[in-house]
Each structure stands twice: as C-alpha cells, then as structure tokens.
Write a structure and sequence with these properties.
- This protein is α/β, with parallel strands linked by helices.
- A six-stranded mixed beta sheet has the order 8-7-6-9-11-10, with helices on both faces. A five-stranded mixed beta sheet has the order 3-2-1-4-5, with helices on both faces. The chain has a three-stranded mixed beta sheet with strand order 12-13-14.
- Helix 6 packs across helix 9.
- The chain is elongated and about 85 Å long.
- The relative contact order is 0.09.
C-alpha cells in the first residue's frame, strides 16, 4: 500500500449522520472531507419503538446526498455503520433496505460492544504510543460506551442505553431547565451506569478521555469561555450547569462555542456527563479526537500498529484472564502447523484455530480444575468486539474439546472441518505439554478420510517419552469417536 487510498466511513448516529473521507498513506489516515447532517433519528422512535415515516424520510434524504459523494468509491474501502437508534428500532429493516440502496453501500447495525471497540481504536489512533491504561467514555445520542484499554488493546468494553438525545427527551421534554430536572436526570443516569463500577472501577486507568458529540460540545463551550482548553473538569461542568439553570429554558441558552445543532440536546448530555464524573470520582477528562468514524476507517485497512478488532479482542481476553502468552502462542502456532500439513494447498490456517490456541487457558484464572469448561463458558458469554455469537460459540466448542473426553463436543465434530480443527488443537496441546515450543522437525501429519496418521522421526520417542505416552492416550480418546488417530512413533 504505497499509494494513497481513499477510504470512507458513514456513521448513522442517533443525533447526526456523518460521512468521513480519509486518505490512507504510510500507515496513517488523514481527513480529506467531513460531512455532517443533524437528522435527529433518535427522536423519531414512537412509543412502539418504530421509526416514524418523517424520521425515515430525513435519514433517506441525507444518505442520498452522501451516496452521490461516494459514487465511484471501491466497495472494499467504504463502511457504513448504524448505532443505538437502529439497534432499537423494530422497523429498522424497512429503513436500512432503502437507505443502503440510496447510499450505494450496505449499512451494518453494529452491537454496542463493537461500537465501543471501534471508538477506542479511533481514539488511540490520534494519541501517541503509551503503556498507559486509558479509559474512554463516549456519550452519544442514545447510548454511552465505556472502554478500558492499553496500547492498541481494548481490554474491557461496555455499552449502556443512555445518551444526550434520550435523556433530553425524557427529563427535559418541554425544554425547561430546572434544578429538579437536572437532579432527576443525573440520579437516573447514575442508576443506569452503576454496574460500570464492577469493571471500570476508579484506579484502573491512568488517564480518562471523553469522545464524540457531547464531549466535543461541552469541551468547545468550556474552552470558548475560559474554562480550560481540550479538557473537561468538574469545575467546568459546574459552571456550565449554572449557565443552563440561569437560562431556565433551552431556547434561551446562548453560549460561545456551543453550536446550534448541539444546543437542543446539551442538557441531557451534560446530565449524563456529570453522572459519569460523580460515579467514577473523576476530576478531569481529556477531550479525545478520533472516535467511531476514525475507528471504522482504520478497520478498513491492514494497519500493523493498530491490528484488527478480532486480534484486539483476543489480546484483551488474554490480558484480562492472565493467560501465559508464550505458552498460548506455542499452542496456537503448533496447531496451525499441523493443520497446514493437512491442507498444503491452503495459504493460511483458519484464524479461528489460532484464536482457540491463544485462548484455551482463559479459564485457568477461575480454576485449574476443569479449566477447559471455564474457558468455554468465558468465551461463549464474552463481549468480544468483532466476534459474532456464532464465532464465539465455535471458539467455545474448540476450547471445551481441547482436552478430556470428546463426547461433550460430539455434535460439533459432525462437521469434518470442525473436527479437523479440534484434533489439530488437541495434538498441539499434547506436543506443547512441557510448555515449550515443540520440536516439529520430522513430524508428519496426514489424513485419509476420518483417519489421521502421525509419524515421528527416528529416535523421537526416546527423546520425548512423556509426549509419546500422551499421544498414545490421545489416540485412545479419539478412537471413541468417528475419527481415528494412527501413530507411527519411532
């Protein structure tokens, strides 16, 4: 990728739709163009959680304009994502079918967890490299995302159904700015966000960042009024709170730095932000650049510094559960080598097999006894950005079956491709029993139908007597399934 590549991200938010066009060159993305339209789709959900016709028409008109700008773009270089409003809307398919047609590219409704991971990716793309633990909080129109990460890895992510549009509509419906309304809104916000303390407890980060619409609106307003540049402080929030109370009604709020499109929802956003500060005991947050759209753009390219969302999720799980990284990599690499011997025409082993090797011991943090069962449970119930529920179920079955009897994964093994992955993983665990990289020279694995043949070089059994015994036990375990492992151990 030596030449500049045009990339585009479309963000269908609850308050605004945005189009970001960037140029990718030398592992960096630079903004080329930015278009934003205040659509307020989050205010267009009726009591049955259906988008009104009027709100859909506003969205379609905006996306038609975006679509004209994107004509001629390579489909592989464009990604359009929709967030909380369309996650909630019961008639979202009606909107998305027409919207995708007008835009000229498919629109994905992403989960809150994937949104959080993309936000973190976008934020760190604009920050210098650091080993600091970073907390990123993004208050959107109808959802708020929390991310705790280090370097490029989003280690913990969460999404809560609370935001500036939703909170303004619920607690300031007539635009009246009263102490009682703010107090009620903040108490309600803390109640929703209270569970965040279980994961994002004070002291677990070195620096906190606020990103996206509410953060930018509040940060710009505070900066324009001498309350700090590029930072949101508790004192600054108190000052802004007093300004809104003095205005008494949202229509009378006139503050330098507060853009007209943000004014109608600033009360709800401020209430959520104040609740976040109180809940987490924060005194200041840096205003972050980047966020969701930049994260989407970096996701479109194979960038060595950032890595893909799946890999970031895997690394985050490994760190969170204290996995022995060196041993996990030995198992993953050995499993891939064995699979490659069975599929010499394939350029790469399945990523799923490598991920299973890296994650097979995540359950050890819970208990060494039956850790494979704990590992499977963790993976199947994890919020791992980038992974679908089906992928997590697949990973769970691989780690569940990597040791012990195979009857527990009998249904999983009915598909030969799944069975081969699992058997390669089991053999890799056996060969890595000393928790060192195994000597693979001369080891040959072949397949005929549902029979695997493993042959060792001369003298191998004498050099590795424990491994030889474990392989014989493995052959016995496999023989109780529809598969067989034949050993030629020399």
């Amino acid at each position: 990728m030596n030449d500049a590549i045009a990339l585009a991200a479309v963000d269908l938010g609850s308050n605004s739709f945005r189009l970001e066009i960037g140029s990718y060159e030398h592992h960096q993305i630079h903004r080329v163009e930015y278009l934003k339209e205040t659509v307020r789709q989050g205010s267009g959900l009726d009591s049955n959680r259906n988008l009104t016709q009027e709100s859909m028409e506003r969205g379609w008109a905006c996306l038609a304009r975006f679509g004209e700008r994107l004509r001629g773009f390579n489909p592989a270089h464009v990604r359009a994502v929709a967030t909380q409003t369309l996650r909630e809307a019961r008639n979202r398919d009606v909107f998305i079918d027409r919207a995708s047609e007008l835009l000229g590219f498919p629109i994905e409704v992403i989960s809150g967890e994937e949104e959080a991971a993309l936000i973190y990716r976008g934020v760190i793309s604009q920050l210098p490299a650091s080993d600091e633990h970073r907390l990123v909080i993004d208050i959107g129109g109808r959802s708020t995302e929390f991310v705790l990460g280090q370097n490029s890895v989003a280690q913990s992510v969460a999404s809560y159904r609370i935001g500036s549009v939703a909170w303004t509509a619920r607690y300031f419906p007539q635009g009246e700015l009263t102490p009682e309304a703010f107090k009620t809104a903040e108490i309600a916000a803390r109640a929703v966000l209270d569970e965040a303390l279980d994961t994002f407890s004070p002291g677990s980060w070195d620096i906190a960042y606020a990103s996206a619409g509410t953060a930018n609106a509040v940060g710009d307003t505070l900066a324009a009024n001498g309350q700090g540049q590029g930072v949101i402080t508790r004192a600054g929030l108190d000052w802004l709170h007093q300004q809104l109370l003095q205005a008494k009604h949202i229509d009378r709020v006139k503050l330098d730095g507060l853009k007209e499109d943000r004014r109608p929802v600033v009360a709800g956003g401020l209430s959520v932000l104040r609740a976040v500060f109180d809940l987490l005991g924060l005194e200041r947050m840096e205003v972050a650049q980047g966020a969701l759209r930049m994260g989407v753009l970096y996701g479109l390219v194979d960038d060595e510094q950032i890595g893909d969302i799946h890999s970031a999720s895997v690394l985050g799980l490994m760190q969170r559960f204290g996995v022995n990284t060196l041993h996990a990599r030995h198992v993953a690499e050995t499993a891939q080598q064995l699979w490659q011997q069975l599929h010499p025409a394939e350029p790469h082993a399945p990523a799923m097999l490598a991920w299973a090797g890296l994650l097979h011991e995540v359950g050890c943090r819970i208990s060494r006894s039956n850790y494979h069962r704990h590992s499977a449970y963790v993976l199947e119930h994890s919020n791992a950005p980038g992974f679908t529920p089906a992928e997590l179920a697949h990973l769970g079955q691989l780690v569940l079956g990597h040791r012990g009897k195979l009857k527990k994964v009998e249904a999983f093994m009915h598909l030969p491709a799944h069975a081969v992955q699992l058997l390669c993983l089991r053999l890799a665990v056996v060969l890595c029993n000393s928790r060192r990289a195994p000597d693979m020279e001369g080891l040959q694995l072949q397949r005929q139908g549902q029979q695997l043949l493993l042959q060792t070089p001369q003298g191998w059994a004498q050099r590795f007597p424990l491994s030889a015994q474990l392989l014989r036990e493995e052959a016995e375990a496999i023989s109780k399934t529809d598969w067989q492992l034949q050993l030629l151990i020399n």
